[in-house]
Amino acid sequence: MKEVIKEAVEIYIKKLQEEGKLKKCELPVIEIERPKDVSYGDWTTNIGFVGSKFFGISPFDITKIISDNLEIDGITSIDAIGGYINFTLSQNSTKEILQKVCEEGDEYGKSNIWEGKNIMVEYTDPNPFKVFHIGHLMPNVIGESIASLFEFSGAEVFRVNYQGDVGLHVAKALWGIKDKIQNFPQDKDSLSEKTRFLGECYALGAKKYEEDDFIKSEIIKINKSIYNESDDSLMKLYTKGRKWSLEHFEEIYELLGTKFDHYFFESETWRVGKKIVEENIGKVFEESEGAIIFDGDKYGLHKRVFISKEGLTTYEAKDIGLAELKKDYNDSDIMISVTAVEQKPYFEVIFKALELLDVAYKGKFEHVSHGLLQLKSGKMSSRTGNVISGESLLKEAKEIARKKVQEKLSEDVKDESVDIVAVAGIKFSILKQSLEKNIIYDNEQALSFEGDSGPYLQYTYARIQSVLRKAELANIEINFDSFSNNTLNIERLFSVFPEKVIISTREQAPHHVANYLLDLAHEFNSYYANNKIISNESSSSYKLAVAKATGHILKNGLGVLGIKTLDVM
Length: 569
Prior knowledge:
Elements: H1 2-18, E1 43-45, H2 47-55, H3 59-69, E2 75-81, E3 84-89, H4 91-104, E4 118-122, H5 134-152, E5 156-163, H6 168-179, H7 191-211, H8 213-228, H9 232-256, E6 262-265, H10 266-279, E7 286-288, E8 291-294, E9 304-307, H11 315-329, E10 334-340, H12 344-357, E11 365-370, E12 373-374, H13 390-409, H14 415-431, E13 439-440, H15 443-446, H16 454-473, H17 489-494, H18 496-507, H19 511-530, H20 540-560
Parallel strand pairs: 4-5, 4-10, 5-6, 10-11, 12-13
Antiparallel strand pairs: 1-3, 2-3, 7-8, 8-9
Helix pairs in contact: 2-3, 4-20, 5-18, 6-7, 6-8, 7-8, 7-9, 10-11, 11-12, 13-14, 16-19, 16-20, 18-19, 19-20
């Protein structure tokens, strides 16, 4: 309909120009958008403001001239308000959309826009031997939503995870393990106890690395030994610690609802990256003070070391190797990496180096950046041990979720339902705002059933399912012809959902869908408070259709955000 309106306005303007009612000139760019308030209609254009300098008359005169006799099929009213023209769908059009939502159900909002495209999304990327802290929740939640959006829009999606199982952080942890070997966990101990021990050892090793030059040299030796696999006793500790970390990560991924298609590891990428860098010295890379660097200054970027003077690959060289391994795994059309916004300059250098290595890489790699997830206590550091683990945040969220659900329903609730509500609270808090903004996370707000939260949307969905069950018991069936009053505001929102999915996918910005769902839920709950849906009136079957359509969209919308729904809460 957006394109229909745009074309109709353009044709009508040309007609007015031919009739001498508007000055003949180049046409202004006509933008058709959704109004911020649905009470203004379904579509709007600011043609009056943008056209004023073209036609040489006031915005008000332009919109009045255009709207007076303009007619568009499917549009019931065309109203000039200042420099805007608002368009309202006819009731027949809204009814058709309502019927479409109810009939398509779980398919409503899907498209084939990205059909035939392979999209690889790399996200989460925790480091074994370090705590999976709340900062890792950000890329996990965002990456899962971006992957789901592309799938919903027809693409074949590959979810991948790049985990740093070698490097200086591992050497620091192993030094700490050797220092605290008397406290080494037993096989019978829980994974949480084992990974907590690893985190403590890493914090100790990181501290000593900064404070003691001798220990620093020992850690550097350990690092080389891990790369070369030259110390059997050390490798046994390494293998066990790596296994603990990866198993613990899987527990967290399962709770968050993420299942990866493939894992990449730095223990694989460094060899590939080192070979590529060394083979391209004098072409893309150059030697500098014993190290091998990429001189980004030549391209308006900055210099970065790819192989250190000790001969060890840095993160940069590993990312070159990662790109090659990604291509071998699936040469996707777009390869997205989700990391913190502070890594933007880093990725600009990596992408430029890749482009120079192989022109086929140009435009293939994209970086989605996000802000920090913080608690009220401030920023965390795994180096100092001042970190909030993702596990502990999820545990606290589950405790609060259980309490709030019990307060709402006055009854016990299943553990699985509590998990789903807790994860929804965390995920929606992250996804409802622009990704690059920092988040000060608060469990009470995130898990509120009254606020703009994931649980609020879940509760609205569950309320609708309860209504549908009651209607079935009362033998009330949906009838799209049983209601003839004016179009409801909530009905106007139904056609907006597919557009929000398209925008969120194209911009890789899930907040467009998230905030739309809040508008939809607010509108439905207002409608629900003022209308009795289950009744003996003939309009009940139409009201039921409105409820059912809202439920479908809430479920589909939460689905592309990576959030599960509950039929009963």
